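Hi W., the coenzyme A complex you wanted:
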Amino acid sequence: MVHRNVLLDDRGGIDIGSNVSISDYANVYSHTHDIYDIHKVYTPTTKIGDGVRLTYHSTVLAGVKIGNNAMVGTGAVVTRDVEANHIVLGIPAKTAKVKATQAD
Ligand SMILES: CC(C)(COP(=O)(O)OP(=O)(O)OC[C@H]1O[C@@H](n2cnc3c(N)ncnc32)[C@H](O)[C@@H]1OP(=O)(O)O)[C@@H](O)C(=O)NCCC(=O)NCCS
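Structure:
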């Protein structure tokens, strides 16, 4: 489900799995510019796995891959890949907790 005022930047493409929740004011990017040459644009695909929850005001940068059932806390900025079932918080987003799975 995609909630209100969500920004989905499809320039490089965003793969969104099933049962994903993208909350209010979340931003998902798929393009970025070279830090020296603004005309050099990179368009890596961003991947949001099945069951992922991007909570409100979180941001996912271009090319990041978020593993299944992971959760991004409010206001976090995700700059690196997130492992499945991890809950990440902060800027840059880091794992704060790992969800228990049925196998645990
Ligand atoms: C991910 C989230 C659920 C964390 O919940 P939690 O694991 O139960 O965390 P807690 O509330 O127990 O807090 C644990 C610690 O993390 C901190 N924390 C909680 N959320 C945080 C956030 N978004 N960013 C940074 N730190 C955060 C707390 O201050 C606390 O720190 P402390 O131990 O120093 O006191 C919460 O951050 C969040 O994003 N909630 C959004 C709710 C939601 O689902 N929104 C979408 C609705 S459509």
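The radius of gyration is 13 Å.

W.
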